[in-house]
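in:
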């Protein structure tokens, strides 16, 4: 019987858009990201302040992408874990490492995907019911 492989977590600021898009599809986050626009995805990656990855045998199985001022707030804009590797603590570890890199003195903020709303209280996040936004132009 084979032992399950342990993920390797690392800061990976040069993550490529093709690999990221592939993971977005495998995580279902592609439903809410512009995966048909590789140039926009590339821009999202290059302008992120923090990108943390999880890899198993070099295969990308998780990504956390955040924007931070490293003093007060950190917006966790993407948390994606391959559905075949969910419920193994990968998402939690990605969030914790992202928060550590931003500085634990910052407030980690995210908008939950509808299917993930029950996950975040499970890993210790508190709800905040007064988020407001301007929708992007088409």
């Amino acid at each position: 019987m084979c032992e399950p492989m342990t993920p390797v977590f690392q800061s990976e600021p040069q993550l490529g858009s093709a690999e990221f898009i592939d993971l977005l599809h495998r995580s279902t986050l592609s439903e809410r990201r512009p995966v048909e626009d590789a140039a926009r995805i590339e821009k999202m990656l290059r302008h992120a302040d923090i990108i943390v990855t999880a890899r198993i045998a070099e295969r990308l199985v998780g990504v956390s992408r955040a924007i931070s001022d490293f003093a007060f707030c950190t917006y966790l804009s993407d948390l994606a874990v391959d559905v075949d590797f969910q419920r193994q603590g990968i998402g939690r570890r990605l969030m914790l490492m992202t928060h550590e890199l931003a500085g634990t003195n910052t407030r980690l903020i995210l908008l939950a995907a509808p299917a993930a709303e029950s996950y975040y209280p499970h890993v210790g996040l508190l709800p905040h019911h007064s988020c407001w936004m301007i929708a992007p132009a088409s």
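note: The chain has four helices and five strands.
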